[in-house]
């Protein structure tokens, strides 16, 4: 089993962590200017890429990967559904920025539950993992076992056994000197990097209160079609089933929770929360909630107040705020301000964070100095799962309980005629911890 200690524990020096991170980023930037060394899977200097998961995020990730390096090709694609793969391929082939780097022959277009392994085995160097989160531990393990560099979208699991698997795989990637870059893209955003650096340097003193808000409206629903099995219907609507998405407190809110852990340099030790289904109550919305509110507490008394909601006609805001002994800070993708002994506002231009994470991934591969985001991407996923456990059960959940949970959300089999996990809507106070 993976270590029970969270990454970047609370006694880690924030200044040391900041310095280490800055050196790593600077090293990647220097490496970007260096020529390629050695041959890759095709016996030349071309980096061959496989896309596994061909939805809109996967298509975007592929385009960014193809623009991150001068000598890269997309040579394999995999998805559970053929129509998703073909739509993604057509989109990339029409893009003037990357079309000339797309070389996915029909025999390298793989469809089905086992398509990921076929893509990994197709002679590629880099794998982009953008399927629904449930599959991330499985796909990541296979990619690292095959010696591939990986970009893994967030979150990286939907349950604690999956998190433990990812931690073990991330350790294997380190031993193999493979790069593993996380889709927790805010850590690659210039605005966030600069703000967090200032907070680590004491701009608002000791931080005791953190607020993570994600208030937004509803998202897509794909009506069930005649002939769809239960597995097909749920896979088409993966967002609304906790076994596939982890619920949106995990699937989306993990971004802001990760920022809080980044700022604090560690993870809280307990959580209590509430949530439910107030608006999204129909069968088409599966078994996830439409609102979650969680209070996380650190051993030193600092607290994260985490709130997320997906309901129409309401106030929207996606942001994080931090209160310290000497001031406060507000941070989002649109603004970053610090109010303290010295007031500050971020007003610089910076590169697109989605592009930067791929730029740094490919620079690390070329330089032979791998990046490994495995620990924080796993532990921040666990932080979000811990919150879901608290809202589903109504109980206080400790970090140890979350990490060592035996609850697995996996189906008995992966096949279109197999039964997906039973739909069970959590009832706080009645649903138990596993």
Shape: globular
Adjacency order of strands in the biggest sheet: 14-13-12-11-7-10-9-8-15
Query: Structural class of the secondary structure composition?
Result: alpha/beta
Question: What's the helical proportion of residues?
Answer: 25-40%
Number of helices: 14
Q: In percent, how much strand structure appears in the residues?
A: 15-25%
Question: Could you give a short description of this structure?
Answer:
35% of the residues lie in helices and 19% in strands. It has 434 residues and is of the alpha/beta class.
Question: How would you describe what is shown here?
Answer:
With 434 residues, the chain is of the alpha/beta class. The protein folds into two domains: 192 residues, 3-Layer(aba) Sandwich (Rossmann fold), CATH 3.40.50; 181 residues, Dihydrodipicolinate Reductase, domain 2. It has 14 helices and 15 strands. The protein has a nine-stranded mixed β-sheet. Strands 3-2-1-4-5-6 form a six-stranded parallel β-sheet, with helices on both faces. Strand 11 and strand 12 form a beta hairpin. Helix 2 crosses helix 12 and helix 6 packs antiparallel against helix 13. The chain is globular, with a radius of gyration of 21 Å. The N terminus is likely disordered.
